[in-house]
Amino acid sequence: MKWLELFTVAGATLTAAMTVVVLYSLGVRLTAIAGDGADGQRSWQRPVSYVCFGLCALAVLFGLYLIIPYFSK
Q1: Quick one: the chain helix, strand, coil %, rounded to 5?
Q2: Are the C-beta atoms of 27 and 15 separated by less than 8 Å?
Q3: For the chain, how many structural domains are there in total?
Q4: What sections of the protein cross the membrane (predicted)?
Q5: Sequence-ordered alpha helix ranges (H) in the chain
Q6: 42-47 long-range contacts, Cβ below 8 Å, gap at least 24?
Q7: What is the torsional sign of CA 12, 13, 14, 20?
Q8: Is there a domain that residue 11 lies in?
Q9: Is 7 among the domain residues?
Q10: Are 20 and 53 in contact (CB under 8 A)?
């Protein structure tokens, strides 16, 4: 068995899953904080949360692109 390839795939999977979870959690947290503050005080948090959600969606779509054989021909 090729152990190096197994550990490479496991490490890539763990890293990708952690990245998606952290981006989504950060987006949810920033959205919640942006709703609590005054209008001018936290104006940067809502756009940053949307960027986090967008990056999370791109990571999921890229994963689907890699999994579905029709798209990777």
Answers
A1: 80, 0, 20
A2: no
A3: 1
A4: 6-27, 48-68
A5: 3-36, 45-67
A6: none
A7: positive
A8: no
A9: no
A10: no
pTM of the entire structure?
Answer: 0.80
Decide if 12 is inside a domain: no
Rounded CA separation 66/1 (Å):
24
CA distances from 23 to 41, 44, 58 (A): 23, 16, 11
Residue 42's pLDDT is: 64
Q: Spell out, as residue ranges, where the chain has pLDDT lower than 50.
A: none
For residue 34, what pLDDT is reported?
86
Token pair listed for 39 = 């209008």
Q: Six-digit token pair at 62?
A: 């890229």
In a domain, 69, yes or no: yes
What is the domain range of residue 31?
19-73
Residue 1: per-residue pLDDT: 77
- Output the pLDDT for position 37: 66
